[in-house]
Amino acid sequence: MIPQIEYKERREQLMSKIGNGTAIFRSAPVAIMHNDVEYNFRQDSDFFYLTGFNEPEAVVVLAPHHEEHRFVLFVQPKEPEKEVWTGYRTGVEAAKERFGADETYPITELDEKLPQYLEKADRIYYHLGRDKPFNDTILKHWQKSMGRYPKNGTGPMALESTNLIMYGMRRVKSTTELKLMRQAIEISVDAHNHARAFTQPGRYEYEVQAELEHDFRRRGAIGPAYPSIVASGANSCVLHYTENNRQMQDGDLLLIDAGCCYGYYNADITRTFPVGGKFTPEQKILYELVLKAQLNAIAQVKPGNPYNQFHDTAVKILVEGLIDLGLLAGDSEEIIKEK
Questions:
Q1: Which among 16, 215, 259, 298 is placed 20 to 30 Å from 196, CA to CA?
Q2: What angle do CA 251, 255, 256 make, to 5 degrees?
Q3: Is the CATH number of domain 4-171 3.40.350.10?
Q4: Of 264, 29, 21, 41, nearest to 129 (Cα)?
Q5: pLDDT of the chain, 339 residues: tens digit per residue
Q6: Contact 206, 244 (CB under 8 A)
């Protein structure tokens, strides 16, 4: 897994990019399945990337201009009577020691403590996401800071998204990250191969899903990176089909779009194969066309090539191939331009 020193290096890199700003990140909210039952918690990716802290109801404040507290964590305090129901918490004191924060506070003290990390900042870096109540909290503090500016002469006069900075940082992977990504891919590849061997006419899509996801967990993955798509027959034409409840028939194609999440790094693999083990002549022709497009697209993935070149290569081969088969009619360039 990622060592704490690497999380610290990421925070230092981010703080070097925000100058006299203050960056704020909020943990993912808890999602309710029904009544008092929660979905398994999945941390916000940016929050986890900067801290490795995997609990809800937490906030990270990065203030490079602050004299003492450059990295501040707000977390849930220890409450044994609640932890019996929802799991152990790190707590305020242990979070400081384990995650290297300069200061930690209970999350209930956010409104009281946050202003001291904003008063000398020239802007707030925060992404206005789907958490509307917390968006409102940040906007409230920003407005108060602007209200004090005429008197104090300091404070954030701008609000800027963290996304552009985080996208740039997360695009370049460390050696440790690459190892985790390769492990996620290896587990997913093995699961796909097992699922293909398991598939046969008469079985149900959910049986194949169960085999896939059993392999994910058995190998130490957190679970699926996204809802597994196991789509046979006409179901394979639904892009995000997740019911996975049809009985597979001989002559069907089965599309599996599934990958595991390992250490918060995701694999994403899509493959299509015949349920009965052998393509029909028509299926084989289309399969070989798609394979040709894929292999030529992969060949375009190299340093210096434009980002969209692999996509354009695949589209061109597919359109020209479908025209040759009589499934499309017209000029290939015009078809690509229109579609």
A1: 298
A2: 140
A3: yes
A4: 29
A5: 899 999 999 999 999 999 999 999 999 999 899 998 889 999 999 999 999 999 999 999 999 999 999 999 999 999 999 999 989 999 999 999 999 999 999 999 999 999 999 999 999 999 998 899 999 999 999 999 888 888 888 889 999 999 999 999 999 999 999 999 999 999 999 999 999 999 999 999 999 999 999 999 999 999 999 999 999 999 999 999 999 999 999 999 999 999 999 999 999 999 999 999 999 999 999 999 999 999 999 999 999 999 899 999 999 999 999 999 999 999 999 999 987
A6: yes
The CA-CA-CA angle for residues 193, 197, 201, to 5°, reads 135
Evaluate whether 4-171 and 173-278 have a shared fold: no
Structure token pair of residue 212: 């896939």
Coil, helix or strand for 84?
A: helix
Give me the phi and psi of 91, to 5 degrees please: 85, 165
Q: Which of 34, 117, 39 is CA-nearest to residue 74?
A: 117
Which whole-number Å values give the CA distances from 153 to 22, 84, 124, 262, in the listed order? 17, 49, 16, 48
Cα–Cα distance for residue pair 244/228, rounded to 1 Å: 9
In angstroms, the CA 215 to CA 203 distance is 18
The single-letter code of the amino acid at 142 is W
- The β-bridge partners of 24 are 61
Domain 173-278 top-level CATH class: alpha beta
Let me know: does 50 contact 162? Beta carbons within 8 Å.
no
**DSSP tag of 100:** T
At 224 the three-state DSSP class reads strand
By the 8 A CB rule, do 77 and 91 touch?
A: yes
Structure tokens at 250: 């001989």
Q: Roughly what angle, to the nearest 10 degrees, separates helices 309-324 and 281-299? A: 150
Would you tell me how many other CB atoms lie within 10 Å of the CB of residue 42? 15
